[in-house]
Amino acid sequence: MTSRERRVVIAGTVLLIAVVGPTRMLPAVADKNREMRDHAFRRLEALTHAREVLSRSDQYRDSLAVTINAVVTDAPLVVVVGTAAEAAAALSLLISSHAARADLRVVSLTPTADSSSSTVNSVSVRAEFEGRIAGVAKMLEMVESGHPVLSIASFDLSSPEALASDDVPERLVIEMQITGAYIVREAA
Q1: Is 122 in the same domain as 179?
Q2: What's the angle, vertex CA 148, arms to CA 145 and CA 152, rounded to 5?
Q3: What is the reported pTM?
């Protein structure tokens, strides 16, 4: 083989590699290009969304303030401006008025309030009542479904006297632990 033939064979091989090589790599390059373009579009969408959120940050802040005020407005007796003692007194007053409406006699009320320095604290009242079963049912309904939101942590119902006759209504003793929450805010 002459040097001219050798150059033609080498040039042909190089030309064949130059033509066939890129055509075999073309799908991989196209896939990588598509992947990079999709990634760039996703980042652009995220950047656009972030700019939109930042442009409305005042609205979000105002919306949060409105929501917090709505929560505070919706819980008038468990949201107390002041101290834990005021929260306990407010809950005791509420339970006492519920008992009067349910025709139950209040035997004792023992309020306790969490006086920690967090924003939302718990307040509870251990209450003992006497009355009839209709009053018990009405009291349970008022506590569980009334306003503000309260829960019954413990409940005990007993009859200290055996039924003497059918003419006398049975006297029941009810012991309840009623719990609620209060929010301490600074006075305006």
Answers
A1: yes
A2: 60
A3: 0.55
